[in-house]
Amino acid sequence: xxxxxxxxxxxxxxxxxxxxxxxxxxxxxxxxxxxxxxxxxxxxxxxxxxxxxxxxxxxxxxxxxxxxxxxxxxxxxxxxxxxxxxxxxxxxxxxxxxxxxxxxxxxxxxxxxxxxxxxxxxxxxxxxxxxxxxxxxxxxxxxxxxxxxxxxxxxxxxxxxxxxxxxxxxxxxxxxxxxxxxxxxxxxxxxxxxxxxxxxxxxxxxxxxxxxxxxxxxxxxxxxxxxxxxxxxxxxxxxxxxxxxxxxxxxxxxxxxxxxxxxxxxxxxxxxxxxxxxxxxxxxxxxxxxxxxxxxxxxxxxxxxxxxxxxxxxxxxxxxxxxxxxxxxxxxxxxxxxxxxxxxx
Length: 345
Ligand SMILES: *Cc1c(COP(=O)(O)O)cnc(C)c1O
Known about the structure:
With 345 residues, the protein is of the alpha/beta class. It folds into two domains: 4-252, Type I PLP-dependent aspartate aminotransferase-like (Major domain) (Aspartate Aminotransferase, domain 2, 3-Layer(aba) Sandwich); 253-343, Aspartate Aminotransferase, domain 1 (Alpha-Beta Complex), CATH 3.90.1150.10. It contains 13 helices and eleven strands. The chain has helices spanning 4-7, 10-14, 21-24, 54-64, 77-88, 105-112, 130-136, 159-168, 222-231, 239-249, 252-274, 297-306, 331-342; strands at residues 71-74, 95-100, 116-121, 141-147, 172-176, 198-203, 216-219, 279-282, 289-294, 312-313, 323-327. Strands 1-7-6-5-4-2-3 form a seven-stranded mixed β-sheet, sandwiched between helices. A four-stranded antiparallel β-sheet has the order 8-9-11-10, covered by helices on one side. The longest helix has 23 residues, at 252-274. The chain is globular, with a radius of gyration of 22 Å. Pyridoxal-5'-phosphate binds at residues 76-78, 103, 147, 151, 176, 178, 203, 205-206, 211, 216. Residues 76-78, 103, 147, 151, 176, 178, 203, 205-206, 211, 216 line the site of pyridoxal-5'-phosphate. It catalyses: L-histidinol phosphate + 2-oxoglutarate = 3-(imidazol-4-yl)-2-oxopropyl phosphate + L-glutamate. Pathway: Lipid metabolism; Amino-acid biosynthesis; L-histidine biosynthesis; L-histidine from 5-phospho-alpha-D-ribose 1-diphosphate: step 7/9. This is Histidinol-phosphate aminotransferase. Belongs to the class-II pyridoxal-phosphate-dependent aminotransferase family. Histidinol-phosphate aminotransferase subfamily. Pfam families: Aminotran_1_2 (PF00155).
């Protein structure tokens, strides 16, 4: 097994992070702050936020039942995705492996960071094979990306296959659980201690209803979290976001209610879709959206746009020919969509 030092880019391993004013003084007893060149007026927006989000991580650790040193918070999960490339992948030398189709940002970040991105096609049921991914990896593969439930296919990946991959890979596995709140499958969070090479991604953007505040979570060993934390922008999570997230953590019951409502609405919406003449195949979903193969995705997509209804056209994505991805909305929104599709000729 490679050590974390062997997996990390040498310049990053050596890096001593920028130390901000708020890093050097982080007590709470002082009342006069003349260290950060802030404007003393315009409270409360005049002060820099806590660069390590200590209070927020402490509250989050209670809900997630994992200690704060296992938690990284970023400007959306997208920040964590970019940071794992910058921390572990030497441009033009290292590569990553990922399932295909999946969330587009893994490939975008690979291209931005000039890192080779190797895709391994899922099978016709959107299942992956750990052996195929491992065969595609070589000594320069630093990361393997998995997403479960997967976007845009909507299905959970098989747990035993994920475990096989984590155990068999001589590098870091990034498992994106953005939609895990909607799934019956338990999160891998409780197994984090067992897998030092696992990085889990979750987000406030979906079940938590907070896409606007841009807050993503990564969970990993304290050593991996330490590396991500030292290369992030010092104040990557702004004060308004930290405040709003704290409020959401105190209203966790509401999130659980939303999830229940959305799962019931998804089932009803799927039943309606199954009866539509334009539906060719409905794919089973463990998320707050589902993929559906229709008779003519491009025309139906354009027809819906004309009706003021936007779904996601996935027609040009691997294995998703003539497929639309439909997010579950309110009862009213779902009804408007179904009524429009009933009228489609
Ligand atoms: C929506 C989504 C995210 C969330 O990204 P944020 O930057 O946290 O909003 C992450 N991964 C997947 C697969 C997604 O679909």
